[in-house]
Amino acid sequence: MSFLEFSHISKTYPGVKALSDVSFSVEKGAVHGLMGENGAGKSTLIRVLSGDQQADGGEISIDGQAQKYASTRDAFHAGVIVIHQELQLVPELTVAENLRLGRFPANAGVIQARQMFSEVGEKLKSAGIDIDPRRKVKTLSIGERQMVEIAKAIMLDARVIALDEPTSSLSSRESEILFALIERLRAEGKVILYISHRLDEVFRLCDSLTVLRDGKLAAHHPSLKDVTREQVVAEMVGREISNVWGWRPRKAGEVRLKVDGISGEKLPQPASFEVHAGEILGFFGLIGAGRSELMRLVYAADAADAGKITVDGKPVRSADPHQAIRAGIVLCSEDRKHDGIIQGRSLEENINISSRRHHTRLGILNPKKEIEVAETFIKKLKVRTPSRKQDIVNLSGGNQQKVILGRWLSEEGIRVLIVDEPTRGIDVGAKSEIYDILYQLAEDGMAIVVVSSELPEVMGICDRILVMCGGRISGELRRDQFAEKAILAAALPDKKTPTAIAS
Amino acid sequence: MTTQLKRILLGDQGLVVIFVVAFALVALLVPNFLTERNILGLLQSVVTVGIVACTMMFCLAARDFDLSVGSIVAFAGMVAVMASNATGSIFAGVLAALLCGSIVGLFNGLVIAKFRINALITTLATMQIVRGLALISSDGRAVGINDPNFYQLALSKLVGIPTPIWVLAILFLIFGFVLNRTVFGKNTLAIGGNPEASRLAGVNVDRTRIWIFALQGLVCGIAGILLASRITSGQPNAAVGLELSVISACVLGGVSLAGGRATMAGVIVGVMIMGIAENVMNLLNIPAFYQYIVRGVILLLAVLLDNLRSSALGRR
Questions:
Q1: DSSP secondary structure letter of residue A86
Q2: What's the number of CA atoms in the CB half-sphere (13 Å) around residue B100?
Q3: Which residues of A touch B182 (CB under 8 A)?
Q4: Please, which pLDDT band fits residue B103 given cuts at 50, 70 and 90?
């Protein structure tokens, strides 16, 4: 009998069958991958496992014991810990306090601080986590916070640890540390459920794999030995995707965007680069390399201290995004939730928010035109939604991204499109659709800048790559020069001399 | 049956349904309620709150707050009376009041948008400053109206309906249109939904917020003039606590304090529910002290209903 068993799990939400008859099992001391497109039922399955939601049918058993939990508390006592994408730590408290929250070592209500710090410090050390327990959580990087969450699970003697997209906001170095930790937990005989969109990670880390599609079990691989990536992708999307990237050569035109020595508070060293019409330029770098900061300066989302920007040879002076838009520069931000979607408003309004200025008269809307624009782009970008009136928060990440693209495509006269992490948290099927949109736009002569932390993505879709490191542009490679090694070498901060400086 | 009832009550029009039912019940059960005289009185009693609620709705929808409305109403009333007494022209008085209201509102907006000071704090400050100005300008006394024609602003009737009610109705129409059919209205709602995303989507957030507060000041000016005319003098202590009644009415009408959600119909219903509750309690001779409790309870119930509705929609 396997250690963790799901048998015939079903769960129905009003109008949606989120899970139907899902059964699979995981052995002790295994890292088990859980993959599927957005909406495939991964999150629901994890919610059922964590006691957050109750299944309508079926049973979970751990170590041969059937579990009946009514709340997350019960799951917790059964040794199940789920580490969500949004971490649950108190920023103002120290690492040790977070780890002992609710179970402070106290004497008559007075916390035994010294004892707590030394105990927690030892536990962290023995788990191979190098973080000072006295630091406040708010001073930690996202990667370090993730470690603290895992440490929490270790300290609670978890038997089953589920990680939901743990690397989505980690740099590759931080991911490595995480992987080492996961491997250590595996050696200790824990069961790790690893949910991820990233095939590379899953193939590297996992012993076994389950693929969900439309709430059903699409495939279960007890071993990954003879399984190919293409096969897993096909299982996820239910069809063959021969080439996720689909890059094809294009003709580049004149220089569209020229950025000359731009700098700002968060990017003190001046940066310069050019993008041609019809070109897709990639910006690669580790987290904190300054890519997003540079793009925010170009878009005037943050104030620039110095530097010149020209579009098609004409100088652009903007102090606020609405002016950059009028100059033909638009940006899809990295943080969709905080900087992209307007929560509580419909798709229609989210699409029209900027471009409606082209068809309003004296500030009065043209509802017919707004409906037309919304419908056009919902159709063109294949946004999956019951209606244009739908609140945007109800859409999946990929569809939200398409709506934001629609917001900019509905603007006439956009010359430069900057997309920051265009496919973060987006499933494979939607990814290749978004790439196709970018190719189409480039073909129509737009200059496109793609910022991404995923090396395969920048290498897959871009015509040229600029690498950033420590707030500077540290390397430039044309498509025929693309090589993982060279790009990473330019991105790593310990290198003193960059491989190639951008002209 | 219960699920259907739930769907109606928690749906978009839930509040309107409750209002209609409540109105019907009151009309049937409370003697003298459904008389022309009482209904006109009722409407007149909600004019000040109703007028100010029009723009407070924009303020709240953009995640802002305005506590200074009561003071502006009183100040504008004083200015209207004193300026028309001084110049002998009612028109000049009205114009001066509207101008003063707008200036205070514009000041609020500039401080909040440009200096990034919390709206609650800013308007808490101007609320006191402006009240102080109203008191200083008359040395704390009420100022009588010299020209009896000034009373006509509130007393005159058009097709049997007093002018202030017409003004209220017209403002309801105008601001309903502005909210739903203009770039300004949509931008207001977008800012409330997500201010940073709105800015990055090309909305001129600062300008929109300044306009919201300036309009709020202008509309308070209108309310102040009509109030002064109705109470036949400029009273520096008029409209104390108005901000809370107005915000209550808006919240009652489904305007979200977290921003991004507001409807004119909802606000009208909110204003009317507050007015009817007070009116009915007066008709039933319920002592004023109890009325506070009833108003508080109504507000809590409304917010509770709103909460249920949000969770029914699956978002908070």
A1: S
A2: 29
A3: 360, 363-365
A4: very high
* Beta carbon pairs, A and B, within 8 Å: 83
Does residue B2 belong to any structural domain of this protein?
no
Please tell me which of the candidates B187, B194, B204 has its beta carbon nearest to residue A341.
B194
Measured at the alpha carbon of residue B115, what is the angle toward residues B112 and B121, in degrees to the nearest 5?
Answer: 45
Given CB atoms, is A394 within the 8 Å cutoff of chain B? yes
Number of domains in chain B: 1
Query: Within a domain: residue B259?
Result: no
Residue A368: CB atoms within 10 Å:
9
Note whether residue B35 is domain-resident.
Answer: no
Do residues A221 and A45 touch, judged by C-beta distance below 8 A? no
- Chain B residues near residue A364 by CB distance under 8 angstroms: 181-183
Can you read off the two tokens belonging to residue A155?
Answer: 């300290």
The answer to whether residue B131 is domain-embedded is: yes
CB A417 within 8 A of CB A408: yes
A301 and B200: CB-CB below 8 Å? Answer: yes
Q: In a mutagenesis test of the B interface, which of A343, A346, A373 is the best target, namely the one with the most B β-carbons within 10 Å? A: A343
> What's the whole-model pTM score?
0.77
**Residue numbers of the domain that contains B146:** 43-239
pLDDT 10s digits, A57-92: 888 888 888 887 777 788 888 888 888 877 778 888
Chain A stretch 362-391, residues whose beta carbon is closer than 8 A to a beta carbon of chain B: 363-365, 367, 391
Contact between A320 and B260 using a beta-carbon 8 Å cutoff: no
Is the pLDDT score of A352 beyond 90?
yes
Nearest to A277 by CA among A390, A462, A441, A488: A441
For residue range A85-113, list pLDDT tens digits in order.
Answer: 777 788 888 898 888 887 777 777 788 88
ipTM for the predicted complex comes to 0.82
